C-alpha cells in the first residue's frame, strides 16, 4: 500500500478565511490534531473539479499540511488560526511567513457543519482568476486517536479487564502501551470482567477520546472521560435503561444531525434499535430498525462509520460465513442495503475495528484471523482495494480482543 506523497511547493503569502456556520452546536472548540477531508464537486479553480485533499493540523501549535489525494496541485503547508465565535460559527485564518502559504489567493471560503463530523463548503475568489468551488468535507473524529498523535490507534481489552493501546504509525504497529493506570482501586475503578468497553467517542467535544462501558450482567452503561490516556471523570448513564442484558451497544454516530451521539444496540435475538442522544434519553425513545423485525442471527453489527463520505453514518454488518453488507442510512431510517462482494470473504477473518489507518480519507477495516493474526483491508467507499498484515501476521493471544475504534 502506497503512502500519500508529501511534496511541497513555494506559494506566495496569502491570508484566507474559512467561516464555519451551523444550525446546531457542532462547531468543534479547536482543530489541533484533526484531519479534514475536502472533496471538490462543482466549479473551477486551483483544484481539479473532482479533486480531494487532506487538511491536517499539528496536535499542538498552529501548523497545517495539505496533502493531495487526487486531481490536485502539489502539497503545501503553513500556519492557521482557528477561532470559534459562537456555538454555531468559527473562523480559520490562514496566514504564514510567505514561504509556503495556503494556495487560495484572495478567497473567502465558507464551511457549514451539518453534523459533528462534517458538512459543506464553498470557496469564492475575491481577486484574480481562481474561480469558485464547492463541495463537502469530513472531519476525522478524535475517537480514532486516543493519544492524539495524529494516528489511528487500536485499543485492546483482555478477558480480565486489562487494557493495552497499540500506537500505530500509519498501517504499521509502532508500540504497545498499557492503560491499566486508568484503573484506581481507591477511587472505585477496579477491573471488573462484567464491564466491557463497547465504544469510544469524544462525547464532550474537548478533542479527547472518551470510553463507553457497558455491564454485561445488567446492561447498564457509563462513560470515562479522558485527557489523552489519563482519566478525568466518570458519568453513569442512568437514562439508557435497556430492558435487559441481552441488548448490547454495538456502534455510535450522529444519525439525525442534531450534533448529539446516538447509540446502536443489537439484542441477542436479532432486533436492532437506535437510541438518539442516548446520554440523555432512554431506550424506550429509540427507533427500531428493519421495521421492528429481527434480523437473521447469523448477521452481527461490527461497526458504524461513513463509508461513502456523504456525511451520513453507515452500519456495517458481517455474516458468520464471512459476507459483509452496509446499511445505508438516511437519518434514523434504513435507506438500502449494499453488499460488499469485492472483499476477500472468508469465515476465518472477522472485522474487529474501523478507522482510516493509511490516511487517504477512506474508512479501512481492521480484521483478525481465527488464529489471532491481525490485518487491514483498505477500502475506497464500498470497494476493497488492498490488504496488509500487521506485525507480519504474528498471532495475538485470543484472550485479548480489539474494542476500538469501531
Order of helices and strands: EEEEEEEEEEEEEEEEEEEEEEEEEEEEE
Question: Which blocks of ≥5 consecutive residues have pLDDT under 50?
Answer: 1-24, 96-108, 125-130
- N- and C-termini, Cα separation: 22 Å
Give a short account of the largest sheet: 9 strands, mixed, barrel
Radius of gyration: 21 Å
Characterise the protein shown here.
The chain is mostly beta strands and 406 residues long. Helix content is 0%, strand content 48%. The protein has no helices and 29 strands. It has strands at 16-21, 35-43, 52-57, 63-70, 76-84, 89-94, 107-115, 118-125, 132-139, 154-158, 163-169, 172-178, 195-201, 210-215, 221-227, 230-236, 247-253, 262-267, 272-275, 287-288, 299-305, 314-319, 324-330, 333-339, 349-355, 364-369, 374-380, 383-390, 400-404. It has a nine-stranded mixed β-barrel. A four-stranded antiparallel sheet has the order 12-11-10-29, with no helix packed on it. Strand 11 (163-169) and strand 12 (172-178) form a beta hairpin. The chain starts with 15 loop residues before the first strand and ends with a strand. Mean pLDDT is 81; it is low at 1-24, 96-108 and 125-130.
Amino acid at each position: 500500500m502506497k503512502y500519500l506523497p508529501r511534496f511541497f511547493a513555494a506559494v506566495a503569502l496569502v491570508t484566507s478565511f474559512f467561516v464555519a456556520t451551523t444550525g446546531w452546536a457542532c462547531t468543534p472548540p479547536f482543530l489541533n490534531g484533526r484531519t479534514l477531508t475536502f472533496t471538490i464537486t462543482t466549479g473551477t479553480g486551483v483544484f481539479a473539479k473532482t479533486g480531494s485533499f487532506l487538511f491536517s493540523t499539528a496536535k499542538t501549535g498552529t501548523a497545517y499540511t495539505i496533502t493531495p489525494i487526487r486531481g490536485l496541485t502539489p502539497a503545501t503547508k503553513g500556519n492557521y488560526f482557528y477561532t470559534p465565535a459562537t456555538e454555531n460559527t468559527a473562523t480559520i485564518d490562514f496566514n504564514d511567513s510567505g514561504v509556503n502559504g495556503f494556495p487560495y489567493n484572495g478567497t473567502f471560503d465558507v464551511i457549514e457543519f451539518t453534523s459533528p463530523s462534517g458538512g459543506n463548503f464553498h470557496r469564492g475568489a475575491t481577486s484574480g482568476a481562481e474561480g469558485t468551488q464547492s463541495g463537502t468535507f469530513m472531519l476525522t473524529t478524535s475517537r480514532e486517536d486516543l493519544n492524539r498523535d495524529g494516528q489511528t490507534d487500536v485499543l485492546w481489552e483482555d478477558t480480565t479487564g486489562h487494557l493495552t493501546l497499540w500506537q500505530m504509525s500509519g498501517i504499521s504497529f509502532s508500540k504497545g502501551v498499557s492503560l491499566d493506570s486508568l484503573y484506581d482501586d481507591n477511587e472505585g475503578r477496579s477491573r471488573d470482567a462484567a464491564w466491557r468497553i463497547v465504544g469510544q467517542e469524544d462525547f464532550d467535544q474537548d478533542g479527547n477520546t472518551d470510553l463507553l462501558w457497558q455491564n454485561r450482567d445488567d446492561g447498564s452503561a457509563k462513560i470515562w472521560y479522558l485527557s489523552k490516556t489519563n482519566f478525568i471523570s466518570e458519568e453513569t448513564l442512568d437514562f439508557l435503561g435497556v430492558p435487559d442484558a441481552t441488548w448490547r451497544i454495538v456502534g455510535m454516530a450522529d444519525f439525525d444531525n442534531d450534533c448529539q451521539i446516538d447509540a446502536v444496540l443489537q439484542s441477542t435475538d436479532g432486533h436492532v434499535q437506535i437510541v438518539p442522544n442516548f446520554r440523555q434519553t432512554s431506550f424506550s425513545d429509540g427507533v427500531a430498525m428493519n421495521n421492528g423485525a429481527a434480523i437473521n442471527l447469523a448477521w452481527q453489527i461490527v461497526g458504524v462509520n461513513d463509508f461513502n463520505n456523504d456525511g451520513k453514518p453507515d452500519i456495517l454488518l458481517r455474516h458468520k460465513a464471512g459476507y459483509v453488507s452496509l446499511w445505508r442510512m438516511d437519518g434514523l431510517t434504513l435507506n438500502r442495503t449494499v453488499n460488499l462482494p469485492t472483499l476477500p470473504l472468508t469465515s476465518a477473518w472477522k472485522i474487529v475495528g474501523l478507522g482510516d489507518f493509511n490516511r487517504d480519507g477512506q474508512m479501512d477495516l481492521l480484521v483478525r484471523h481465527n488464529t489471532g493474526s491481525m490485518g487491514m483491508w483498505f477500502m475506497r467507499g464500498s470497494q476493497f482495494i488492498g490488504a496488509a498484515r500487521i506485525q507480519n501476521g504474528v498471532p495475538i493471544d485470543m484472550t485479548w480482543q480489539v474494542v476500538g475504534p469501531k
